[in-house]
Amino acid sequence: MKKYLKRVSYLLLSLTLLLGSCEVEDSLTLTSPEAAFTLDTPGISSVFLNFALPSNPAFTISWQDELKAGSDYTVEMATDAEFTSPITLGTTTNSNFSMTVSDFNDAINNAGVTNFRDVAVYMRVQSGGNTSNSILLLVTTYPVDAPAFASISDGDSFVLTLDNNDLEAVNVTWDDPILDSTLSIDIDYTLEAAAPNTSFADVIEVGSVRNMNAISLTNSQLNSVAIQSGIAVDAAGDLEMRLRSVITDAASGTVLERTTETVTINVTTYLTVLDLSTTWGIVGSAANDWGATPDLPFFKTDVDGELVAYVNLVDGEFKFRENNDWSNNLGSDSATGGSVTSNGANIAVSAGSYKIGLDLNNMTYSIENFSLGIVGSAANDWGATPDLMLEYDPYSDVFRGLVTLTDGEMKFRLNNDWGTNWGDDGVDGTLDPGGANIAATAGTYFATVNLNDLTYTLEPVTNVWGLVGGAYNDWGATADAQFRRDWSKPFNDVWILENVTLIDGEYKFRANNDWGTNYGDSDGDGVLELNGGNLNTTAGTYTFVLDFSDPDAPTYTKN
Questions:
Q1: 3-state secondary structure string, 434-485?
Q2: pLDDT tier, 162 (very low <50, low <70, confident <90, very high otherwise)
Q3: Sheet holding 168-175, edge to edge
Q4: Which residues lie closer than 8 Å to 228 by C-beta, 6 or more apart?
Q5: What are the angstrom distances between the C-alpha of 204 and each of 255, 420, 554?
Q6: Whose CA is closest to 306, among 268, 286, 274, 280?
Q7: What is the DSSP secondary structure assignment for residue 152, as one 8-state letter?
Q8: H/E/C letters for each residue in 78-92?
Q9: Which of 54, 256, 350, 392 would disulfide-bridge 102, Cβ 3.0–4.6 Å?
Q10: Cα–Cα distance between 117 and 179 in angstroms, integer?
Q11: Measured between alpha carbons, how far is 476 from 234 in angstroms, rounded to an integer?
Q12: Which of left, alpha, beta for 424 (phi over 0: left; psi -120 to 50: alpha)?
């Protein structure tokens, strides 16, 4: 609209006053702005959506509406400047609008956005057929959708075998777009399993990784999980699996957790240890004080009826009997030995380590010196003291020993003698008769030798567990009572201490004869706590079992 004003020039007015001349008028045209509907540009253009503060306002926008074409305002967003597919964020009768962090994050994720940083979000307001200008926000979001399994699905079947014990059974992978983002956050993934239809009430942690999208499981690992879930040995059964994703806000400790859909797979299990047991054993003053403790067991060989035992005997006599009972026993009436008869005479023996064979097909027996040990500069100064002995593990048909080595070299040999010894020419874990020395680094190891295929391993051991206390060694005045690894559970971290004699008093468990890592039980519930309270005992002889299979909640039993 134009307005006409008559303005008398100050100059002319002055002249008129001075000169008395006629009045001079100017006509001027002034233009006012058109009425507008304007969305104000916010003070910040980058928005970070923090899942730890879901109820906080993510943004507040305001506008000026001079057109007043309607009383309601609709706020829209889009991921492109053209608003090809606008999304309504909300309506209001006010001239401003806010949205919470969680609601705005959901709206962006529902728009199909797959990136998480600097997401372009265009916003505008509509009212009464009029549309405001648009503004641009760059938004950092957080994930809402759970990861999705990529390599396993319902109905997948896995037949596991002992032959493939250490080979990969499945590589569980998943898709999670946030892993491809440039956000500087850590994402922890935990693969979990449970028996079907239990809603994961007794969850089994299968494995965990950080900022990765795969967990590889060997036959032994998947087999252990399946059996733990309740699937019988050498049987097929269903196993439920899910993946849990956790992102933790560093400032508040708030956790964002997402869990995949559950998948059900079928697993055929196998016996995790070799069944080498027999009903026969060795009894006698040289073995077990004629039955004061269970007989020393024989184990099967690959020939039916031919049994073998690896034993440590003292000076004395022995016989063979079945089921720890005298109703069926064998001795030797032969002056030269070698043959056995029912109820035969006792067999004399000197103290030593032996391999004893019993052939029930031909009713004969054999006995030979047999000890397998480690010799070398890394062990005993090449034989200056007895070799570090390995013991027969009947559960896996190998020889094992917990040994402490120094920097140097080593070999394996029989009977503390160089007549039969092995080294490793190819540095490949395969033993060669009379082979090259094996380099060793100082440390404590589980040494394992398989004489069936002449292979060996040296597995580093971080903690060797012991019992310490006023009830045993005056809190460390002498060495702790040392546990040994329970190889009947080869895939669990279980340690056993048998027949230890205690007096009235207190005790704890610790690693490596040192207080750096020690456990007690403050609650008396059988679950150990790091640096926990002392345990009490009355005098007696006990057997303890420590189970560190769950390092976050180790347990102990005392019998």
A1: CCCCEEECCEEEEEEEECCCCEEEEEECCCCEEEECCCCCCCCCCCCEECEE
A2: confident
A3: 148-149, 168-175, 214-218
A4: 204
A5: 21, 46, 15
A6: 280
A7: -
A8: ECCCCCCCCEEEEEE
A9: 54
A10: 12
A11: 46
A12: beta
Mean predicted confidence (pLDDT) in 507-530? 96
The CA distance from 58 to 48, in Å, is: 8
List the Cα angle 515/402/281 in 5-degree steps.
Answer: 125
Token pair in block for residue 375:
């010799």
Distance (Å) of CA 124 to CA 77, 93, 116, 411, 468: 7, 15, 22, 79, 73
Given this model, what pLDDT does residue 27 score?
55
Q: Answer whether residue 305 shows pLDDT above 50.
A: yes
Question: Is 169 in contact with 217 (CB distance < 8 Å)?
Answer: yes
**C-alpha separations of 287 from 309, 311, 527 in Å:** 12, 8, 37
Alpha-carbon distances of 514 from 463, 478, 511, 551, rounded to whole Å: 10, 12, 6, 19
Whether 332 and 366 have beta carbons less than 8 Å apart is answered as no
At 108 the three-state DSSP class reads: helix
Integer Cα distance of 78 and 124 in angstroms: 9
- What the block records as the tokens of 394 is 């009947």
d(CA 47, CA 117): 10
pLDDT tens-place string over residues 308-327? 999 999 999 999 999 999 99
Band of the pLDDT at 17, cuts 50, 70, 90?
Answer: very low
Q: What share of the chain is helix, strand, coil (3-state, %, to 5)?
A: 5, 45, 45
Q: What is the pLDDT of residues 407-456, one digit of tens each?
A: 999 999 999 999 999 999 999 999 999 999 999 999 999 999 999 999 99
281, 296 contact by CB (below 8 A): yes
Distance between CA atoms of residues 556 and 520, nearest Å = 10
pLDDT at 8 over 80: no
Query: Which DSSP string corresponds to 41-100?
Result: PPS-SEEE--TT-TTSEEEEEEEEESS---S-EEEEEESSTT-SS-EEEEEESSSEEEEE
Three-state secondary structure along 350-388?
CCEEEEEEEECCCCEEEEEECCEEEECCCCCCCCCCCCE
Would you call 157 helix, strand, or coil by DSSP? strand
With a pLDDT cut of 90, the percent of the chain lying above it is 81
Whose tokens are 């047991």? That residue is 277
Burial of 178 (0-12, 13-18, 19+ CB in 10 A): buried
Q: What is the pLDDT of residues 40-86, one digit of tens each?
A: 988 888 999 999 999 999 999 999 999 998 889 999 999 999 999 99
Please name the residue that has the structure tokens 């669990």.
Answer: 492
